[in-house]
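Observation: inputs received (chain + guanosine-5'-diphosphate).
Thought: call the complex predictor directly.
Action: predict_structure
Action Input:
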Amino acid sequence: MFSQLQNSFQKVFKDLRGQGKISESNIQEALREVRVALLDADVNIKVVRQFIAQVKEKAMGQDVLQSLTPGQQFIKIVDEELTALMGQTHTKLHLSNTPPTVVMMCGLQGSGKTTTAGKLAASYKKQGRKVMLAGADIYRPAAVEQIRTVAEQVGVDVYAPGTHMSPVDICNEAKRLAEGRQVDLLILDTAGRLHIDDELMQELVQIKESATPDEILFVADAMTGQEAVNVASSFDERLSLSGVILTKMDSDARGGAALSIRAVLGKPIKYIGSGEKLDALEPFHPDRVASRILG
Ligand code: GDP
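Observation:
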């Protein structure tokens, strides 16, 4: 996770750290290297431009240049700006005052929706909440099987009647059942496609309108970098997402999606997936991630 950026930043900061005096041209040079490191990590170019401008504005002030530890001050500014870029603080799931809280998962096929639905279920079950999963992917019988298996592994209720009901009806019925069973959290696992298509979007809009979810989470494969950001933007236009979960962060050395998506979409990353197992889900803390990147 972020290993490429960690290496690049380590090189940039090696000379700056511990320096008693640095000049404007030292800072210009460091900024240039930070810029290259971010672009190499596949961060969105507009995001990089804005980021560098912000850091520059803060770093060029005399209070930085004339401080006793200018190198450290510069690194601190980069740390603060990285944290701000990723959303500053952790954004929790919005839990409804009148349970069940309904969470709708959406995203492309293979992004990790079903696995992540299971991970979320496991995490909330561990907190003592009653969780139910609903399988609304009626196009692939394997998907119905998968959500049932995941629910069994986690040990939560599941409503996945198969391929004969419409996705909207499945979600509505799941909500009705969840209300009756005093479920705290209902997670709707919707269908994905290999690419965005209008039919899928219409289906998701219908589910949103009839099941009125409290959260609409876009699940994106972090390894797809800027493509994940573009697809997220298309989903956001149609569905007005409430947040993002980035999966496969364990396999993503670059981190371009993680560093761009908040700035491009204006929506928070709420969780990251860090492995295939059902406990490999971490709340996303921008400050901790920034510190991790800067080493
Ligand atoms: P869906 O089609 O969006 O429902 O995707 P799946 O949940 O079936 O996941 C697709 C593949 O990605 C599966 O092999 C998962 O085990 C894998 N996967 C999901 N999340 C993660 C993650 O955070 N890390 C890794 N390494 N693999 C993941």
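Thought: report the result.
Final Answer: Residues 41 and 212 are 37 Å apart (CA to CA). The first helix runs from residue 3 to 16.
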